[in-house]
Structures are given as C-alpha cells and as structure tokens.
Amino acid sequence: MLAHETDRELLVDGSLYGMGKSAGNAPIELIAMHMNSQYGKQYQISQYLEAIDANIMQFYTPATWGYNLFFYLAASNDCHPSYVKQLMNKKTLSIHQVNELLGRLEGEKKLLYDADYMEQLYLEYQDKNINDTEDAERLRKELSGHSVLIVGPGKTMFSEQDCVQQFVHDKKPVVIAINYVPEKIVPDYVFLSNSKRYIQVATALSKGEFKEIATSNITSAGKPFDFIINVSDLLDRESRFIDNSLMMLLKTMMRVGITNVTLAGFDGYSGTDQNYFDEGKEYDFARKQAEYLNGYMSDFLVKNAGQLRVNFLTTTKYLKDCM
Question: At what angle do helices 81-90 and 69-76 cross, to 10 degrees?
Fold first, then answer.
C-alpha cells in the first residue's frame, strides 16, 4: 500500500515492536525504517528503539512475539549478533549508543566476533574527557558542611525503610540517589552515570525538583544537567567493570572534599537471590560475578578509608571483607 501512488492521505496502523493481540501489528519502527530508505523520510529510528528497550522489553520476555531486537540491531549494522549481546548485557548503554558503537566496527571485525575488540571500543566510547573544574567547584560549595546520604536501589530500601527515614528525619542530610529516583525519599541530587538507567528515569527526573549530577558520557535528553563530572577521572581501568556507579560517585565525593558519607540501599550482590527491589534493574552478569563485585567494593572502601569514611545504614555484603 505504501508503494501505491495516490493523492489521498494514507494512515498506516502499527505499534512499537508489533505489540498486539494474537499475531500482533505491523512494527512501526520497521515501517519508519522502510519509509526512510525508500521514500526519503527522516524518522528517528533510535527513538522508537529507546522506547522499546525502556518500556516493552520489561514485560516482553515472559510472552515473546515478533522479531528479535538483538538480530534487528545486528542486521541493521551488518555485524555479528554477539556484539549486540555483549553491549546489551552491560545495561549501561541506551539503544542509540549501542547503535553508535556497532557503527564503529570496521572491516572483517564486523562479522568475526572479537569480544576484546568490542571491549576496547566500549572503553574508548565511555572515556569522554571534559574540563569539569567549574562544575566540581560549584558542587563542592553546595555540599560543604552537610552530611551526605547516598541511596541505591537495593531491597533494603524497602525492608529497612523505617531506619532510613528516621535517619533522614534526625540528621537532615543531603540525599543523593544513584541512577534512580526513590519512591519513599525525596533526593536533593540524582547521580547519573548509566545511559540506559537515565532513559528509564527521564520522566521521573523531569517531574522532580532535585538537581542532576551527570558523568560526561551521558547525553541530556532535556534540560542541561546541573553538574557534569569528567567520566575519565572516575573509570577504573583495572577492574572487570570499569564504570561501577557507586565507585564513581564515591570518587566524585572525594574529589569535592567530602570526607564522610552514609550509604543505604547498597546491599551487595548475591549469586542466588534478586539483588534489586526492581527486578528490571537486574544486571545479567551480577549473579555470576557476585563474589567479585562484593570483593571489589570492599577493597575499594579499604583502600580509600583514609580519605573517605563510609558508614552503612542498611544491611550490606560489602562489609564482610572490610570488618
């Protein structure tokens, strides 16, 4: 029908990822891609894919339908599907960024999968240098003289919420949330270091009155971030996971002169149990790498204890190797 010449206005019925009853509907992102390639349209395909990844994929797995998003990304970039899986499993990149990285594959590497090659591309992509001196100084002035409570998405934010809320009531700390917006506590700041998480919480961020501290690898989808911190200074190139969000925020706190912080909702990782109060936030690698991740954070806390004192308000596995 799209190829038929007519003066009449055409309406094409479709839905994201073809979601619909029984056989489903025409995938609107594929229609848009066809319109771009055949009729010179300029639909932003990445925006459709972001919506699919941030919303539909959360409930797609138990009731699958249609084509496979992994293979779509691989086919549209003429590359081996294992590259897509490697990047998607990190859960740190938006679909737009995954597409950008796949587009950097060159020559025979496109079809001959090389995990180390992609890991190097990922590091180079994340390693974005900026001059953050002014922003760091402004953040230093705002936090100076305040106690700081950093909250994470662990299950203890619910199971031990009375303790957390009592602490906030009594101590009146500056509250900084990492890559999410808490339901029970209103944060003063949200630290953003994960592009995928940022896309997922963009709506909540737009409705809040808190300030945003973003690392330089994150691109704002709306108003400019209040503070942008140079991500290159925060990455741990010796770690299996170079961009651990808690490690990056603690480094930021040390950078701006904070010497004492309290943590809540950083439960550590389990090889068998759910690690987050929201199952959609689970990392695929977390259970397999639980021992390493817990040990890494324990070592980090011990190594930096002389510069930053960290107090845990809720139960955590990070303290086992630190006591």
Answer: 120
Q: 191-250, pLDDT tens digit by residue? A: 999 988 888 888 888 888 899 999 998 988 778 999 999 999 999 988 888 889 999 999
The residue among 296, 298, 292, 320 whose CA lies nearest residue 310 is 298
Residues with Cβ within 8 Å of 116's Cβ and at least 6 positions away in sequence, in order, are none
Strand partners of residue 150: 176, 263
pLDDT (tens digit per residue) in 259-290: 999 999 999 887 666 655 455 555 555 567 78
d(CA 281, CA 195): 13
Tokens of 157: 């934010």
Task: Show me where the domains of the chain are located.
Answer: 14-126, 133-312
User: Could you tell me which residues come within 8 angstroms of residue 24 by beta carbon, excluding any fewer than 6 positions away?
Assistant: 15, 18, 65, 66
Collapsing DSSP to helix, strand or coil, 85 comes out as helix
Q: How far is CA 172 from CA 146, 167, 227, 243, in A?
A: 9, 7, 22, 30
Give, for 126, the enclosing helix (H) or strand (E).
helix 115-126
Residue 246, burial from CB neighbour count under 10 angstroms (0-12, 13-18, 19+): buried
Looking at residue 203, its amino acid is T
